[in-house]
Amino acid sequence: MIEFRNVTKQYVKNNTTTTALHPINLTISKGDIFGVIGYSGAGKSTLIRLVNALETPTSGDVIIDGHALNDYSPKQLRDAKKRIGMIFQHFNLLESKTVAENIAIPLRLGHKQFSNQEIDAKVTELLEFVEIPDKKNAYPRELSGGQKQRVGIARALVNNPHILLCDEATSALDPQTTLAILDLLKKINREQGITIMMVTHQMEVVEYLCNRIAVMEKGHIVETGPTLEIFQNPQAPITRKFINTVIEEEIPLRVLANLEDDLPNHIYRFEFLGNSAHTPVINELMLQGKVTVNILFANMIEIDGSVIGGMFVQLKGNNDDIEEGIRFLEERGVRVTLSRLNAETIHHHQNQDHDQQPNQHGETIA
Ligand code: ADP
Question: Which of 5, 123, 155, 332 is least crowded, fewest Cβ atoms below 10 Å from its Cβ?
Protein backbone atom coordinates (compact mmCIF):
# COMPACT_ATOMS: atom_id res chain seq x y z
CA MET A 1 0.00 0.00 0.00
CA ILE A 2 1.23 3.49 -0.91
CA GLU A 3 -0.04 6.38 1.16
CA PHE A 4 0.56 10.10 0.74
CA ARG A 5 -0.21 11.91 3.96
CA ASN A 6 -0.29 15.72 3.77
CA VAL A 7 2.57 15.62 1.29
CA THR A 8 3.80 18.92 -0.14
CA LYS A 9 6.71 19.62 -2.45
CA GLN A 10 8.37 22.89 -3.28
CA TYR A 11 11.31 23.40 -5.58
CA VAL A 12 13.61 26.31 -4.96
CA LYS A 13 15.70 27.40 -7.89
CA ASN A 14 17.51 30.73 -8.38
CA ASN A 15 15.58 32.23 -5.47
CA THR A 16 12.19 31.34 -6.95
CA THR A 17 9.98 28.83 -5.25
CA THR A 18 7.65 26.58 -7.24
CA THR A 19 4.99 24.70 -5.32
CA ALA A 20 4.68 21.47 -7.27
CA LEU A 21 2.40 19.73 -4.76
CA HIS A 22 -0.11 21.26 -2.38
CA PRO A 23 -1.03 18.96 0.52
CA ILE A 24 -1.74 15.63 -1.10
CA ASN A 25 -3.65 12.86 0.63
CA LEU A 26 -3.99 9.71 -1.40
CA THR A 27 -4.05 5.96 -0.84
CA ILE A 28 -3.13 3.37 -3.43
CA SER A 29 -4.10 -0.14 -2.38
CA LYS A 30 -2.11 -3.29 -2.91
CA GLY A 31 -2.91 -4.79 -6.32
CA ASP A 32 -4.27 -1.54 -7.79
CA ILE A 33 -3.40 -0.29 -11.22
CA PHE A 34 -3.63 3.34 -10.25
CA GLY A 35 -3.60 6.08 -12.87
CA VAL A 36 -2.69 9.70 -12.19
CA ILE A 37 -3.80 11.95 -15.00
CA GLY A 38 -3.15 15.63 -15.59
CA TYR A 39 -1.68 18.11 -18.00
CA SER A 40 2.01 18.90 -18.17
CA GLY A 41 3.14 20.74 -15.05
CA ALA A 42 0.33 19.37 -12.85
CA GLY A 43 2.81 17.68 -10.51
CA LYS A 44 2.45 14.06 -11.67
CA SER A 45 6.15 13.30 -12.06
CA THR A 46 6.92 14.88 -8.72
CA LEU A 47 4.23 12.74 -7.09
CA ILE A 48 5.46 9.46 -8.55
CA ARG A 49 9.13 10.24 -7.90
CA LEU A 50 8.35 10.64 -4.21
CA VAL A 51 7.41 6.96 -4.04
CA ASN A 52 10.90 5.70 -4.81
CA ALA A 53 12.60 8.62 -3.08
CA LEU A 54 13.94 10.20 -6.27
CA GLU A 55 12.39 13.28 -4.64
CA THR A 56 11.79 13.92 -0.95
CA PRO A 57 8.70 15.73 0.36
CA THR A 58 9.00 19.27 1.69
CA SER A 59 6.51 18.22 4.36
CA GLY A 60 4.27 15.27 5.07
CA ASP A 61 4.89 11.56 4.72
CA VAL A 62 5.05 8.97 1.98
CA ILE A 63 4.19 5.68 3.63
CA ILE A 64 4.78 2.33 1.99
CA ASP A 65 3.36 -0.78 3.61
CA GLY A 66 2.98 1.09 6.87
CA HIS A 67 6.52 2.57 6.96
CA ALA A 68 7.22 6.25 6.34
CA LEU A 69 10.15 6.61 3.96
CA ASN A 70 11.35 9.56 6.09
CA ASP A 71 11.94 7.28 9.05
CA TYR A 72 14.16 4.80 7.24
CA SER A 73 17.90 4.53 7.78
CA PRO A 74 19.94 4.87 4.56
CA LYS A 75 20.27 1.08 4.35
CA GLN A 76 16.56 0.47 4.93
CA LEU A 77 15.78 3.07 2.27
CA ARG A 78 18.13 1.37 -0.20
CA ASP A 79 16.41 -1.96 0.42
CA ALA A 80 12.95 -0.42 0.11
CA LYS A 81 13.87 1.28 -3.18
CA LYS A 82 15.09 -2.01 -4.61
CA ARG A 83 11.58 -3.38 -4.31
CA ILE A 84 10.14 -0.54 -6.39
CA GLY A 85 10.71 -0.72 -10.14
CA MET A 86 10.31 2.22 -12.49
CA ILE A 87 9.91 2.70 -16.24
CA PHE A 88 10.23 5.94 -18.17
CA GLN A 89 8.90 7.69 -21.25
CA HIS A 90 12.26 7.56 -23.02
CA PHE A 91 13.22 4.12 -21.69
CA ASN A 92 16.55 5.28 -20.14
CA LEU A 93 18.58 2.39 -21.57
CA LEU A 94 22.37 2.51 -21.85
CA GLU A 95 23.09 2.60 -25.58
CA SER A 96 26.55 1.05 -25.26
CA LYS A 97 25.25 -2.05 -23.49
CA THR A 98 23.33 -5.02 -24.83
CA VAL A 99 19.76 -5.78 -23.83
CA ALA A 100 20.97 -8.48 -21.39
CA GLU A 101 23.51 -6.11 -19.83
CA ASN A 102 20.91 -3.37 -19.46
CA ILE A 103 18.51 -5.69 -17.67
CA ALA A 104 21.27 -6.95 -15.36
CA ILE A 105 22.36 -3.46 -14.23
CA PRO A 106 20.31 -3.40 -10.99
CA LEU A 107 21.66 -6.86 -10.06
CA ARG A 108 25.29 -5.85 -10.64
CA LEU A 109 24.88 -2.57 -8.74
CA GLY A 110 23.28 -4.22 -5.70
CA HIS A 111 25.15 -5.26 -2.59
CA LYS A 112 24.33 -8.90 -3.05
CA GLN A 113 26.69 -10.78 -5.35
CA PHE A 114 25.12 -12.83 -8.13
CA SER A 115 27.02 -15.31 -10.28
CA ASN A 116 27.02 -14.79 -14.05
CA GLN A 117 24.93 -17.93 -14.30
CA GLU A 118 22.29 -16.61 -11.92
CA ILE A 119 22.17 -13.32 -13.79
CA ASP A 120 21.89 -15.05 -17.14
CA ALA A 121 19.03 -17.25 -15.90
CA LYS A 122 17.14 -14.24 -14.55
CA VAL A 123 17.65 -12.22 -17.75
CA THR A 124 16.50 -15.13 -19.91
CA GLU A 125 13.38 -15.63 -17.79
CA LEU A 126 12.51 -11.92 -17.95
CA LEU A 127 13.05 -11.69 -21.71
CA GLU A 128 10.63 -14.59 -22.12
CA PHE A 129 8.15 -12.80 -19.88
CA VAL A 130 8.32 -9.54 -21.84
CA GLU A 131 8.11 -11.52 -25.08
CA ILE A 132 11.41 -10.60 -26.74
CA PRO A 133 13.48 -13.75 -26.01
CA ASP A 134 15.61 -13.33 -29.13
CA LYS A 135 16.85 -9.81 -28.35
CA LYS A 136 19.27 -10.73 -25.59
CA ASN A 137 22.41 -9.66 -27.44
CA ALA A 138 20.91 -6.79 -29.42
CA TYR A 139 21.79 -3.16 -28.69
CA PRO A 140 19.07 -0.60 -27.94
CA ARG A 141 19.61 1.15 -31.31
CA GLU A 142 18.54 -2.09 -33.01
CA LEU A 143 15.15 -2.12 -31.25
CA SER A 144 11.79 -0.50 -31.92
CA GLY A 145 10.27 1.80 -29.29
CA GLY A 146 7.99 -0.93 -28.02
CA GLN A 147 10.90 -3.38 -27.72
CA LYS A 148 12.95 -0.79 -25.85
CA GLN A 149 10.12 -0.31 -23.37
CA ARG A 150 9.95 -4.10 -22.93
CA VAL A 151 13.64 -4.03 -21.98
CA GLY A 152 12.88 -1.17 -19.58
CA ILE A 153 10.13 -3.27 -18.03
CA ALA A 154 12.37 -6.34 -17.72
CA ARG A 155 15.02 -4.20 -16.00
CA ALA A 156 12.39 -2.79 -13.63
CA LEU A 157 11.31 -6.32 -12.69
CA VAL A 158 14.76 -7.78 -12.11
CA ASN A 159 14.71 -7.30 -8.33
CA ASN A 160 11.21 -8.78 -7.95
CA PRO A 161 9.54 -5.48 -7.01
CA HIS A 162 6.14 -5.24 -5.36
CA ILE A 163 5.50 -1.81 -6.88
CA LEU A 164 6.02 -0.69 -10.46
CA LEU A 165 6.06 3.04 -11.23
CA CYS A 166 5.38 4.14 -14.80
CA ASP A 167 6.17 7.75 -15.76
CA GLU A 168 4.47 8.47 -19.10
CA ALA A 169 5.62 5.00 -20.13
CA THR A 170 3.67 4.92 -23.39
CA SER A 171 3.78 8.59 -24.40
CA ALA A 172 6.54 8.03 -26.96
CA LEU A 173 4.82 5.04 -28.57
CA ASP A 174 2.29 4.72 -31.40
CA PRO A 175 -1.28 3.66 -30.47
CA GLN A 176 -0.87 0.00 -31.38
CA THR A 177 2.41 -0.40 -29.50
CA THR A 178 0.86 1.47 -26.58
CA LEU A 179 -1.89 -1.15 -26.35
CA ALA A 180 0.63 -4.00 -26.44
CA ILE A 181 2.65 -2.42 -23.61
CA LEU A 182 -0.51 -1.78 -21.58
CA ASP A 183 -1.46 -5.45 -22.03
CA LEU A 184 1.97 -6.40 -20.73
CA LEU A 185 1.48 -4.16 -17.68
CA LYS A 186 -1.89 -5.83 -17.05
CA LYS A 187 -0.15 -9.23 -17.21
CA ILE A 188 2.47 -8.07 -14.68
CA ASN A 189 -0.27 -6.91 -12.32
CA ARG A 190 -2.34 -10.05 -12.76
CA GLU A 191 0.34 -12.72 -12.72
CA GLN A 192 2.83 -11.19 -10.30
CA GLY A 193 0.43 -9.22 -8.11
CA ILE A 194 2.53 -6.08 -8.56
CA THR A 195 0.87 -2.76 -7.66
CA ILE A 196 1.20 -0.33 -10.55
CA MET A 197 1.17 3.45 -10.36
CA MET A 198 1.08 5.14 -13.74
CA VAL A 199 1.22 8.85 -14.45
CA THR A 200 0.11 10.01 -17.86
CA HIS A 201 -1.60 12.79 -19.79
CA GLN A 202 -3.34 10.20 -22.01
CA MET A 203 -6.92 9.45 -20.96
CA GLU A 204 -7.08 6.40 -23.22
CA VAL A 205 -4.26 4.89 -21.17
CA VAL A 206 -6.05 5.18 -17.83
CA GLU A 207 -9.32 4.10 -19.40
CA TYR A 208 -7.73 0.92 -20.75
CA LEU A 209 -5.41 0.09 -17.88
CA CYS A 210 -6.40 1.50 -14.52
CA ASN A 211 -8.96 0.40 -11.95
CA ARG A 212 -8.65 3.68 -10.06
CA ILE A 213 -7.76 7.22 -11.08
CA ALA A 214 -6.68 10.51 -9.55
CA VAL A 215 -6.99 13.68 -11.61
CA MET A 216 -4.35 16.33 -10.91
CA GLU A 217 -4.40 20.03 -11.64
CA LYS A 218 -1.84 22.62 -10.51
CA GLY A 219 -0.44 20.49 -7.72
CA HIS A 220 -3.81 19.38 -6.36
CA ILE A 221 -5.72 16.14 -6.68
CA VAL A 222 -9.09 17.43 -7.84
CA GLU A 223 -10.87 14.10 -8.09
CA THR A 224 -10.19 10.45 -7.33
CA GLY A 225 -12.12 7.17 -7.44
CA PRO A 226 -12.78 3.99 -9.43
CA THR A 227 -12.30 4.51 -13.18
CA LEU A 228 -15.89 3.56 -14.02
CA GLU A 229 -17.34 6.04 -11.50
CA ILE A 230 -15.14 8.87 -12.71
CA PHE A 231 -16.17 8.21 -16.31
CA GLN A 232 -19.85 7.91 -15.43
CA ASN A 233 -20.00 10.93 -13.19
CA PRO A 234 -17.06 13.31 -13.56
CA GLN A 235 -17.17 16.26 -11.16
CA ALA A 236 -14.34 18.62 -12.03
CA PRO A 237 -14.31 20.53 -15.34
CA ILE A 238 -10.79 19.28 -16.08
CA THR A 239 -11.98 15.67 -15.67
CA ARG A 240 -14.73 16.28 -18.22
CA LYS A 241 -12.15 17.72 -20.56
CA PHE A 242 -10.03 14.59 -20.26
CA ILE A 243 -13.02 12.31 -20.74
CA ASN A 244 -13.94 14.33 -23.80
CA THR A 245 -10.67 13.26 -25.38
CA VAL A 246 -11.98 9.69 -25.48
CA ILE A 247 -15.73 10.12 -25.62
CA GLU A 248 -17.31 13.19 -27.11
CA GLU A 249 -20.28 14.74 -25.32
CA GLU A 250 -21.39 16.38 -28.50
CA ILE A 251 -21.53 15.34 -32.08
CA PRO A 252 -18.40 16.47 -33.94
CA LEU A 253 -19.17 19.34 -36.30
CA ARG A 254 -17.35 17.58 -39.12
CA VAL A 255 -20.02 14.87 -38.98
CA LEU A 256 -22.82 17.40 -39.17
CA ALA A 257 -21.15 19.16 -42.05
CA ASN A 258 -21.54 15.99 -44.11
CA LEU A 259 -25.29 15.70 -43.55
CA GLU A 260 -27.44 15.94 -46.61
CA ASP A 261 -30.16 18.04 -44.98
CA ASP A 262 -29.63 21.77 -45.15
CA LEU A 263 -30.52 22.27 -41.51
CA PRO A 264 -30.81 18.87 -39.85
CA ASN A 265 -33.27 18.58 -36.98
CA HIS A 266 -34.06 15.97 -34.39
CA ILE A 267 -30.52 14.94 -33.56
CA TYR A 268 -30.32 12.99 -30.32
CA ARG A 269 -27.68 11.40 -28.20
CA PHE A 270 -28.52 7.88 -27.06
CA GLU A 271 -26.75 6.48 -24.01
CA PHE A 272 -27.21 2.82 -23.36
CA LEU A 273 -27.68 2.35 -19.63
CA GLY A 274 -27.54 -0.98 -17.87
CA ASN A 275 -28.61 -3.86 -20.03
CA SER A 276 -29.80 -1.78 -22.96
CA ALA A 277 -26.34 -1.96 -24.56
CA HIS A 278 -26.83 -5.68 -25.00
CA THR A 279 -30.33 -5.66 -26.48
CA PRO A 280 -31.24 -4.75 -30.06
CA VAL A 281 -33.39 -1.72 -29.14
CA ILE A 282 -32.50 0.34 -32.20
CA ASN A 283 -33.36 -2.54 -34.44
CA GLU A 284 -36.74 -2.87 -32.74
CA LEU A 285 -37.41 0.83 -33.22
CA MET A 286 -36.59 0.55 -36.90
CA LEU A 287 -38.79 -2.51 -37.33
CA GLN A 288 -41.77 -0.54 -36.02
CA GLY A 289 -41.41 1.37 -39.29
CA LYS A 290 -42.69 4.74 -38.03
CA VAL A 291 -39.48 6.71 -37.81
CA THR A 292 -36.33 6.58 -39.90
CA VAL A 293 -33.19 6.17 -37.88
CA ASN A 294 -30.08 7.77 -39.29
CA ILE A 295 -27.05 6.83 -37.21
CA LEU A 296 -24.55 9.68 -37.50
CA PHE A 297 -21.76 8.90 -35.10
CA ALA A 298 -21.04 6.56 -32.23
CA ASN A 299 -18.38 6.84 -29.61
CA MET A 300 -18.63 4.25 -26.88
CA ILE A 301 -16.17 2.47 -24.67
CA GLU A 302 -16.51 -0.36 -22.21
CA ILE A 303 -15.24 -0.22 -18.65
CA ASP A 304 -15.81 -3.22 -16.36
CA GLY A 305 -18.64 -4.43 -18.59
CA SER A 306 -20.47 -1.09 -18.57
CA VAL A 307 -20.85 0.89 -21.77
CA ILE A 308 -19.96 4.56 -21.50
CA GLY A 309 -20.51 7.13 -24.20
CA GLY A 310 -23.20 7.42 -26.76
CA MET A 311 -24.53 7.28 -30.25
CA PHE A 312 -25.72 10.32 -32.19
CA VAL A 313 -28.80 9.66 -34.22
CA GLN A 314 -31.10 11.69 -36.41
CA LEU A 315 -34.74 10.66 -36.19
CA LYS A 316 -36.96 11.46 -39.13
CA GLY A 317 -40.72 11.22 -39.22
CA ASN A 318 -43.68 13.15 -37.91
CA ASN A 319 -43.34 14.66 -34.45
CA ASP A 320 -45.81 12.33 -32.73
CA ASP A 321 -44.04 9.25 -34.07
CA ILE A 322 -40.66 10.61 -33.01
CA GLU A 323 -41.94 11.29 -29.50
CA GLU A 324 -43.40 7.81 -29.29
CA GLY A 325 -40.13 6.33 -30.54
CA ILE A 326 -38.19 8.19 -27.85
CA ARG A 327 -40.59 6.94 -25.16
CA PHE A 328 -40.08 3.39 -26.41
CA LEU A 329 -36.30 3.75 -26.17
CA GLU A 330 -36.46 5.28 -22.70
CA GLU A 331 -38.61 2.42 -21.48
CA ARG A 332 -35.89 0.07 -22.71
CA GLY A 333 -33.20 1.85 -20.69
CA VAL A 334 -31.81 4.22 -23.29
CA ARG A 335 -31.16 7.77 -22.10
CA VAL A 336 -32.19 10.11 -24.90
CA THR A 337 -31.04 13.74 -24.95
CA LEU A 338 -31.47 16.31 -27.65
CA SER A 339 -28.16 17.38 -29.13
CA ARG A 340 -27.23 20.89 -28.05
CA LEU A 341 -26.11 21.56 -31.59
CA ASN A 342 -29.27 22.97 -33.06
CA ALA A 343 -29.90 24.23 -36.53
CA GLU A 344 -28.49 27.64 -35.67
CA THR A 345 -25.05 26.41 -34.65
CA ILE A 346 -24.88 24.21 -37.69
CA HIS A 347 -25.85 27.07 -39.94
CA HIS A 348 -23.17 29.21 -38.30
CA HIS A 349 -20.64 26.43 -38.86
CA GLN A 350 -21.57 26.06 -42.50
CA ASN A 351 -21.09 29.79 -43.06
CA GLN A 352 -17.72 29.71 -41.33
CA ASP A 353 -16.59 26.97 -43.67
CA HIS A 354 -16.49 29.47 -46.47
CA ASP A 355 -14.08 31.70 -44.56
CA GLN A 356 -11.75 29.17 -42.97
CA GLN A 357 -9.10 26.86 -44.33
CA PRO A 358 -9.27 23.30 -43.05
CA ASN A 359 -6.47 22.30 -40.68
CA GLN A 360 -4.11 19.38 -41.36
CA HIS A 361 -6.78 16.86 -40.42
CA GLY A 362 -9.17 18.32 -42.91
CA GLU A 363 -11.31 19.77 -40.12
CA THR A 364 -12.38 23.34 -39.68
CA ILE A 365 -12.82 24.70 -36.23
CA ALA A 366 -15.83 26.93 -35.75
P1 ADP B 1 4.05 16.92 -14.56
O2 ADP B 1 4.78 15.63 -14.37
O3 ADP B 1 2.61 16.83 -14.26
O4 ADP B 1 4.35 17.55 -15.86
P5 ADP B 1 6.01 17.99 -12.69
O6 ADP B 1 5.92 17.23 -11.41
O7 ADP B 1 7.13 17.62 -13.62
O8 ADP B 1 4.61 17.95 -13.44
O9 ADP B 1 6.15 19.53 -12.36
C10 ADP B 1 5.31 20.24 -11.46
C11 ADP B 1 5.86 21.63 -11.26
O12 ADP B 1 7.11 21.59 -10.61
C13 ADP B 1 6.11 22.39 -12.57
O14 ADP B 1 5.79 23.73 -12.37
C15 ADP B 1 7.59 22.21 -12.80
O16 ADP B 1 8.12 23.27 -13.54
C17 ADP B 1 8.14 22.19 -11.39
N18 ADP B 1 9.35 21.35 -11.29
C19 ADP B 1 9.44 20.03 -11.49
N20 ADP B 1 10.69 19.58 -11.27
C21 ADP B 1 11.41 20.65 -10.90
C22 ADP B 1 12.80 20.86 -10.52
N23 ADP B 1 13.65 19.84 -10.46
N24 ADP B 1 13.17 22.11 -10.20
C25 ADP B 1 12.31 23.14 -10.23
N26 ADP B 1 11.01 23.02 -10.57
C27 ADP B 1 10.56 21.80 -10.89
Answer: 5
The string over 4-28, giving b where at least 16 C-beta atoms fall within 10 Å of a residue's C-beta and e elsewhere, is: beebbbeeeeeeeeeebbeebebeb
Residues 50-72: tens digit of each pLDDT: 999 999 999 999 999 999 999 99
Helices and strands (H, E) in the chain, number of each type: 13, 14
Q: For ligand 1, say whether the CB of 258 is within 6 Å of any of its atoms.
A: no
Tens digit of pLDDT for each residue in 313-356?
A: 999 999 999 999 999 999 988 999 888 775 555 556 556 544 44
Q: In what order do the strands lie in the sheet with 33-37?
A: 84-88, 163-167, 195-200, 33-37, 212-217, 220-226
Count Cα atoms within 13 angstroms, Cβ side, for 252: 16
Interatomic CA distance for residues 279 and 333, integer angstroms: 10
pTM: 0.84
Please calculate the CA angle 153-154-156 and round it to the nearest 5 degrees: 60
Q: Check pocket membership of 359 for ligand 1, CB cut-off 6 A.
A: no
* Gap from CA of 41 to ligand 1 centroid (Å): 6
